């Protein structure tokens, strides 16, 4: 009855709509061949990744999604601003798409840029159910390019998502093959001395935390546009052309550090929104983020796009070349990352107070390791004598007065002397460009055109990112989604979210339906994103103009963290008249009349 | 009723010519699996091995642990056995069924029953225990038992692993049993009953699903328990060479 009615209304309204595009997707069981292994997975229109959907800004799209699986499915349009019931999250936006059913999404395209879509049901997304969205803008873009490619990354694992979740719950370090070994103990001893190394191991053992806990899920093959490193996806160019590369990280769990040896990259867009151009040698793309970069290869030779996982357990690789079949050198993976005590900044009982004035990032202490017991009372008596090889030239900002108790010999400094305000000072995860050049920081991102007038937030909501690695429980404010009440926002307010990462892992936080304005200290030019990475031991702020009524998902985009509880429902109360009625109705079903 | 509301909403939308007929859909409450406690299961065999003793005794031994449940409540079935290949009989055979709940960040409490059904007299015990990860990465499993004969005892299992590499792993284990009263019928004397220490070198061949190992195990009985064993013509100390595999699925 309802569907007939709706179909009738839609038919009635169709002539009114100026620009309307109809698209069709089927959700299918597919074969995925990474070059390393072949497995069955889930894809769209018979393939994983699915097609690139090309929309036009201002277009009214209708997308027919036919579920050919024997289980429920859904499609979420990641980063798109649309009515909440078109957002595609089962249990929040709509009930989901039943086996055999065709569901038609209808929404206006109100933005431009690079986005993606994926299933929001179970582990269908890690199993292959994802694709890219490219939206042509109505007006001109503030940059030029001659050709463009989507470069969509994923971390394809031989195990199914269900099995990975079960294994992580049974043995949380099931997939971690970068743990500290007896061999590493001895190499640390020879580098930092026996006592420092023992103290370091005891400090971590006391917390029952692993310095190697950077990537939960290892053993994947990195894919670019569905091709493994050996299959080498290749994008063609004519020397001298400007190429726009639309990087999308569709991984379940993996951050990638991306570089193209021999080419500068100009970042022009982040999460679909134009940013003031930044030239970089390398950038880190969080799970679910997108970055558009422009490169201009001038030589008629091949260039490798090298995407190394943040924990260095795997990589994806592709090639830009003037003709098919050419390839360039593929770099070696760098050493696995090791967390430091700085990454434990959110841990209760850790005192970093004495280090307040110290800027670790500006210190060059390449090759040191094992910041044993930092913030530990046993570190009396700082010994500078062992710092012979240290570059003091850029240490002006360093304040020694507060460092009375520090032993530099045993402190871990980011290799290469990089600094990034979005990482804890002294963090083992601070990214460093392989060629020693510029590595993109969130602090470099400035909006090209602010979407909103800058104004004071009406209130702040603190979200502590919490978890227990040994139980593989992930939560917000210590509460898993299954036990959590929704976060209630008022239509029209501007909310400041304060993320405090108390875990030792990086979490890419994604709010559906409304923009996340990332606080980078650029005022009205703070960048507008849909996914915000929060590094261990850091506090990150973002602001949201609450301008979309309805209810929305808000979660860590690491698939297995979201499934383990790091997930919330957000309800936007109030709003335009029709939406208000809906919100009331929703509140009634939610709480049995307590509206 | 809801149809009338829908019609009303639709007519309103049509009247203002706003093309979002779907906006009539109400906000739903989340009844998907995501909103339910995550239920999971697993089976692990920490020991599944052949033992050959310095007295030419041959044993088949397992230590298996299966669970089903959520973060808040798990049901566990723990099964341990030692089968003598010569005598074609179980030297020991125990099965525990316990419920397990978290009590701290790293520890769970468990309670349930244990059935011992080896060759010889059977026993049933009530079990109360804690299991978890102690500082410095010691895996601890400690239990108190009270038998249907009224005898109480306790055991402690500790395990520590050295990663020689990320695939070659050396496991050290210590199991110790203490009895607070004598149960002569099953050869248990008061005091420290027995210890079993093991050292096993394993290699993760298929993920963590199949990890073959070789090792040595030392078993010793103490005090009255040792005397009972001697009186029965048995030994009080054994060294075994072992070969087997850790399994997890």
Polypeptide structure, described:
- The complex is a heterodimer of chains A (595) and B (249).
- With 595 residues, chain A is mainly beta.
- Chain A has 3 domains: 139 residues, Cupredoxins -  blue copper proteins (Immunoglobulin-like, Sandwich), CATH 2.60.40; 157 residues, Cupredoxins -  blue copper proteins (Immunoglobulin-like), CATH 2.60.40; 133 residues, Cupredoxins -  blue copper proteins (Immunoglobulin-like, Sandwich).
- In chain A, 11% of the residues lie in helices and 31% in strands.
- Chain A contains 6 helices and 30 strands.
- A 6-stranded mixed β-sheet of chain A has the order 10-9-12-17-14-15, with no helix packed on it. In chain A, strands 21-20-23-28-25-26 form a 6-stranded mixed β-sheet. In chain A, strands 11-19-18-13-16 form a 5-stranded mixed β-sheet, with no helix packed on it.
- In chain A, helix 3 crosses helix 4.
- The longest helix of chain A has 15 residues.
- Chain A starts with a helix and ends with a helix.
- In chain A, 52% of the residues are buried.
- The C terminus of chain A is likely disordered.
- Chain B folds into 2 domains: 36 residues, no CATH class; 206 residues, monomeric porin ompg (Porin), CATH 2.40.160.40.
- Chain B is built from 2 helices and 12 strands.
- Chain B has a 12-stranded antiparallel barrel.
- The radius of gyration of chain B is 27 Å and the shape is globular.
- The N terminus of chain B is likely disordered.
- At the A-B interface, helix 1, helix 2, helix 4, strand 30 and helix 6 of A face helix 1 and strand 1 of B.
């Amino acid at each position: 009855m309802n569907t007939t009615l709706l179909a009738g209304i839609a038919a009635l309204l169709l002539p009114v709509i100026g620009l309307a595009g109809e698209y069709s997707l089927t959700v299918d069981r597919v074969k995925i061949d990474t070059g390393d292994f072949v497995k069955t997975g889930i894809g769209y229109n018979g393939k994983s990744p699915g097609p690139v959907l090309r929309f036009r800004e201002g277009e009214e799209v209708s997308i027919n999604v036919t579920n050919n699986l024997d289980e429920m499915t859904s499609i979420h349009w990641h980063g798109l601003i649309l009515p909440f019931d078109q957002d595609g999250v089962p249990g929040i936006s709509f009930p989901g798409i039943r086996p055999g059913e065709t569901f038609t999404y209808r929404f206006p395209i109100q933005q431009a840029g690079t986005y993606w879509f994926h299933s929001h049901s179970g582990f269908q997304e890690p199993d292959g159910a994802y694709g890219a969205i490219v939206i042509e803008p109505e007006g001109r873009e503030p940059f030029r390019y001659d050709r463009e490619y989507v470069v969509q990354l994923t971390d394809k694992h031989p195990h199914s998502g269900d099995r990975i979740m079960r294994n992580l719950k049974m043995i949380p370090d099931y997939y971690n093959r970068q743990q500290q070994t007896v061999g590493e103990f001895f190499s640390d001893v020879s580098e930092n001395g026996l006592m420092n190394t023992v103290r370091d191991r005891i400090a971590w053992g006391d917390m029952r935390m692993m310095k190697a806990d950077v990537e939960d899920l290892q053993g994947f093959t990195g894919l670019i546009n569905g091709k493994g490193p050996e299959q080498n996806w290749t994008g063609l160019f004519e020397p001298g052309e400007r190429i726009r590369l639309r990087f999308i990280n569709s991984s379940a769990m993996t951050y990638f550090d991306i570089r193209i040896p021999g080419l500068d990259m100009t970042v022009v867009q982040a999460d679909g929104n134009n940013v003031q151009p930044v030239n970089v040698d390398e950038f880190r793309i969080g799970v679910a983020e997108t970055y558009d970069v422009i490169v201009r290869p001038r030589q008629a030779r091949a260039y490798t796009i090298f995407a190394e996982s943040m924990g260095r357990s795997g990589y994806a690789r592709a090639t830009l070349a003037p003709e098919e079949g050419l390839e360039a050198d593929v770099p070696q993976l760098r050493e696995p990352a090791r967390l430091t005590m700085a990454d434990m900044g959110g841990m209760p009982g850790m005192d970093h107070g004495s280090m307040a004035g110290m800027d670790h990032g500006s210190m060059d202490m390449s090759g040191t390791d094992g910041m044993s017991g930092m913030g530990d009372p046993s570190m009396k008596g700082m010994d500078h004598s062992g710092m012979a090889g240290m570059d003091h030239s850029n240490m002006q900002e360093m304040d020694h007065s507060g460092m009375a108790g520090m032993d530099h010999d045993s402190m871990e400094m980011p290799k290469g002397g990089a600094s990034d305000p979005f990482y804890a000072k002294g963090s083992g995860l601070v990214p460093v460009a392989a060629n020693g050049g510029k590595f993109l920081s969130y602090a470099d991102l400035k909006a090209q055109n602010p979407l909103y007038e800058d104004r004071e937030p009406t209130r702040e909501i603190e979200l502590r990112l919490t978890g227990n690695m040994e139980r593989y429980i992930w939560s917000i404010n210590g509460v898993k989604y299954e036990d959590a009440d929704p976060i209630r926002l008022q239509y029209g307010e501007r909310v400041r979210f304060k993320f405090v990462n108390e875990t030792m892992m990086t979490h890419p936080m994604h709010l559906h339906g409304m923009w996340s304005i990332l606080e980078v200290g650029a005022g009205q030019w703070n960048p507008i994103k849909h996914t915000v990475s929060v590094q261990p031991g850091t506090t990150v702020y973002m602001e949201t103009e609450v301008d979309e009524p309805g209810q929305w998902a808000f979660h860590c985009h690491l698939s297995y963290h979201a499934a383990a509880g790091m997930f919330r429902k957000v309800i936007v109360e109030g709003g335009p008249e029709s939406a208000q009625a809906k919100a009331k109705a929703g509140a009634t079903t939610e709480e049995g009349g307590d509206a | 009723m809801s149809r009338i509301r829908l019609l009303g909403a639709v007519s309103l939308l049509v009247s203002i010519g706003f093309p979002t007929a779907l906006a009539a859909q109400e906000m739903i409450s989340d009844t998907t699996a995501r909103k339910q406690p995550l239920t999971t299961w697993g089976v692990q065999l920490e020991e599944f091995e052949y033992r050959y003793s310095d007295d030419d005794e041959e044993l088949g031994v397992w230590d298996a642990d299966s669970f089903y449940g959520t973060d808040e409540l798990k049901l566990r079935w723990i099964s341990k056995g030692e089968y003598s290949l010569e005598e074609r009989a179980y030297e020991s055979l125990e099965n525990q069924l316990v419920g397990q709940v978290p009590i701290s960040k790293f520890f769970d409490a468990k309670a349930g029953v244990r059935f011992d059904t080896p060759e010889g007299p059977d026993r049933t015990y009530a079990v109360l225990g804690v299991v978890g990860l102690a500082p410095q990465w010691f895996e601890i499993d400690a239990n108190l038992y009270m038998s249907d004969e009224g005898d109480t005892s306790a055991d402690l299992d500790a395990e520590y692993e050295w990663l020689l590499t990320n695939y070659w792993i050396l496991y050290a284990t210590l199991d110790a049993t203490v009895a607070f009263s004598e149960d002569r019928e099953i050869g248990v004397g008061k005091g420290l009953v027995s210890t079993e220490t093991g050292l096993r070198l394993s290699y993760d061949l298929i993920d963590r699903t199949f990890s073959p190992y070789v090792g040595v195990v030392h078993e010793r009985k103490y005090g009255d328990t040792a005397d009972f064993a001697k009186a029965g013509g048995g030994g009080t100390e054994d060294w075994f060479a072992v070969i087997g595999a850790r399994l997890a699925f």
